[in-house]
Amino acid sequence: MKKLFLLISFLSIAAQAQTARGVKIGYIDMEYILEKVPDYADAMNQLEQKAQKWKQEIETKRAAITILKDNLKSERVLLTRELVEERDEEIAYLEKELLEHQEKRFGPRGDLIIQKTVLVKPIQDQIFTIVQDVAEQRKYDFIFDRSSDLTMLFADRKHDISKFVVGKLTSSQKREEMSKKQLKALDAKEALEESLEDNPAVEERQRILDEKKAARDKAIEERQKAIEDRKTEAAAKRKKLLEERDAKKNGTVIEKDNKEDDKNNVATPKVSTDSGEKKATPEEIRQKAIDDRNQKLADRKKAIDAQKKKIAEDREAAAKAKEQKTEKQD
Question: Where is this region: Disordered (predicted)?
């Protein structure tokens, strides 16, 4: 109740000061930030492994005590009073030792809390340093931790800088492995992000530009996919043509079927093979047409050659007859 009263009083004073001179207030969520830090997750995994090991130790001791109690219960009637008291004292001592061990491991000042503090403190110190830098850069007068004991009755999301701190923390870890050129690009990106957060109009304009860029990238990706699909289809056709050509070289003969195609009313050639007949492929039909044309050209050439030969023979015979006639006149 006292903390609540102090918070209300402080916020009232801060509100009055903000009205008077423009106080800038922000807050962070330490739990949210820690969940986003890989080092924190690794530290928690290590601590969880130790906690499981300690729990197993405690359960082992508790099971041993249970066995002693069960044995004493079943043997009590057979033991003397002194032995029973001795066993009771031993069990009481072991139970006290178990409680002390449990307190040592999981108590308010136990090993779990101590080691968690040791593991988390360097990360928290790094976060506090970044928060101070952010406060100086962005001119914050107050920055609260929402996950702390200080109760916050209301907090507007626009004052939450947790994501910004996570980004700073991540970039600071990456900076150690970056070149000067990469660092310059990262600084420019962070400056742009800061300007977007401070100016909603610029942020909206940047959002529209990002959407246009995403749409353009998607269109380029779809166009590239279509090109790749066409290439794949063309390659499949080439492969099929090569296979058909190889099949033809292996002894297939193209013949024409007497039946007509039901759709096109055109005679459908067939290929004669050793295993029977099959329909000719478009490539085989095309090749048959080429062969027919070549045969016709060869026949035509042969006829022309025969005609030329006959004309030459006729001319030679006419010339010879003319010579004989001239000789007779002489």
Answer: 192-217, 239-330
